[in-house]
Structure formats: C-alpha cells, structure tokens
Amino acid sequence: MGLSNANTGTLILWATYLMLILLGLFVRKSKCYDACFVVFMGMVAWLNTDSADILDVYMPMYAAPQLDWGTEQGWLFLCKVGNALCLSYNGFVFFLTLFASTALVIFARKTTPNESFYLALFLVYPGLLSLVQFRQFIATAIALIGVLVLASGRRGKWVWFFLLLLVAFSMHRSAIILVLLAIVPIYRRVPKKLRWLATAFGAFLLVEAVVNAQSISTFIFGEVKTGAYFRSLSGDTSAGSGGNASSLGIALIDIFLTVFLCVLVPFFAKRLQEDAVEDSAFLKFASFANIATIVLVPMLFITEDFMRFERYGFMLALCIFAGMPYLAKRHVLFSCKAFLLAICFAFCWMYAIRGATFGAVIGPLLSFEHFPSLFL
C-alpha cells in the first residue's frame, strides 16, 4: 500500500508539473494559474527529502547555522530565524519558496504582457533546478525585484537597487554579476562625443577582469569556492572538469546555446521596443545582461558551474520571450510559443546532460515518498 501511495503521489506531481506548463501556453494573466504555480513550487520544495545536496549540505547547515560553514551570512541568518520559529528544514524551504515564487509572479506581472506564460517557461527551465540550487533561487528572486526597481522611474531607485542586490549577495555571491547592469544608465548619461572613451575604458576593464579572473574570484567568493569555480585553471582534468573529448563536446554545446540565446535576446528586445509591448528601460537591461554574458563567456566557461552566473541573464531573457507572442506583427517562428518553449527545453536538456541532473535532481524532486513535518 505504501508503494502504491508513493507511485500515486509521484504521478500526481508529474501530471501537475506537465499540466502547468501546458496551461501556461493558453491562459493569459491568470491569477488562478499564478497561485497554482506558487503552491506547486512550494509543495515540491516541501516534499523534497533526498534530492542532490539536501541531506549532505543543506540540512546539516540548517541544523547548526552557528558553525563556520563558509556560507553567506544572510543565508545563515535565515537558518537561525527558521530554527527560532521551530520550522523543520522542509517547512523552512516551503515558506521561502512561496516567498520567492510570489516575487517571480510580481516581477513577471510588471515586466511582461502575460506573466502566466513567463511562469510556464520558467517551469521548463530553470524551475525545478532552482529548488536544488536553492540559495541562488532566493537570491535571484530578490535581485530581479532590484532590477525591476532600477528600471522604474521612482526616486531612490539606486539606493533600493543596491540594497536589494546586497541582500541577494548575502544569500548567494553570484548575484554580484548584476552590478554590471548599473553600466547601462551610467553609459547613457555620458555625452555622445565621449562614449568612445567610455567604451575603450570598459574594454580595458574587461581585459583586466579576464586576466585576473582567479584573483577576483578569490576576493569575492573565497579560496574554497574559487577552487570549484575555476578548477580548470589549476590543471584538473578529472571527470566533470572538461578534460576529455566528451566534456569538450558538451562545453561546445553550452557555448553554442548560450551565444545563440544572447544574440537572440537583443533582437527580440528590439522588436518589443518598436511595438512598445514591454518597458523600454527594462528591455535595455535584459539585452545588456545577455550581451554581457557573451562577452564574459571566455572567463565564465573555464568554470564547471557556469549556470550559476548565466541564470540571471536567462531569467531576464524569459521576460522577453514571454512578450514575443503579443507583438502586433507576429513572426511566424520567433513569436511561436512552441519555439520559445523549445529554447527552454534545449537549455534544460543541456544542463541535464552536462550535469546528469535528471536522475539526481528532476526525478527525485517529482518523486513522492512521504509528507515531511513542517515543524520541529
């Protein structure tokens, strides 16, 4: 009977997951759909008992946040708050996931003509993977609200942007990459006659960043994480670090898909800007974030954890994808929801193949075992 219940629960999770993706293609600005998305993400996070690092890393860290884990202090502070509220780890991630998913709904509602389609694309990629890279999921949700504030015309936007980015950074240090978005409004304030000088200075800084990538990473992430992020610099050619032909082939696929995405996004953004489908300032930020990804590819792809950095540009790109079907003059391919969904599937496939995450992540996340306690 226990096995039967587990199988039934697993079937329900898979059916709900696929149904949400399918419905997202047809509904528009549905608050009911958005609520179902938030609840589904929270339920999957709550039911996660053995996927990826939860048993070896997250649960021990949550049980004893006072120890020196070498983890960001903002996250450890949240762990202490969760313990003070007598929440179990599963209860802790349940409520945090509800918060982060709600933030995504608000962000998509403000930046796209149909947040429900955005959420459907997110569910394909990087939705479920976000529940494993959980600290970065929370950091991304906070950082995206910061980008939303920066794109607005409200007073104090710079203060709020950097404050929210600081909070996101305290959850996961990869959020520091969004500081680059500050270049967009600053560059626009430079007189046109002097922009060549600003461009040359930016190119110089980029070269310096690439040359000193390991030193910069050590300063921002610390020596332990730099050892993982920049493993190939140390000459490690063990399995998973890109030291064989298979790894090289997968890396080339990574690069192709990423460059394809980062070229496509500015093209889509220009079409949306011409039709005034989405906010012009936000479109500039989304385009720049993805163009910057191309520029940084040589530095970022020496890591074996590139998705940590690419996620932010991709989340902004999803907003542009979500707007394409609502152009006045729809393109037969680029405005096709199935094509946009296929791009997300391609990235999901790329990451699943590269990191063998289907069996270790997606499968376990959608496998029901039992209902964990919400409280200690």
Question: What does this molecule look like?
Answer:
Helix 2 (31-47) packs parallel to helix 6 and helix 4 (73-84) packs across helix 8 (157-171). The chain contains 17 helices and no strands. It has helices at 2-24, 31-47, 54-63, 73-84, 89-111, 115-130, 134-151, 157-171, 183-189, 195-211, 213-221, 223-229, 245-275, 280-300, 307-323, 337-355, 357-365. The chain is globular. It is mainly alpha-helical and 376 residues long.
Radius of gyration: 21 Å
**Could you give a short account of the major beta sheet?**
none
Count of discrete alpha- or pi-helical segments spanning 4 or more residues = 17
- Supply the helix-strand structural class: mainly alpha
What spatial form do the alpha-carbon principal axes imply? Answer: globular
β-strand number: 0
- Average pLDDT score: 82
Unreliable sequence segments: 232-243, 301-306
Name the helicity range: over 70%
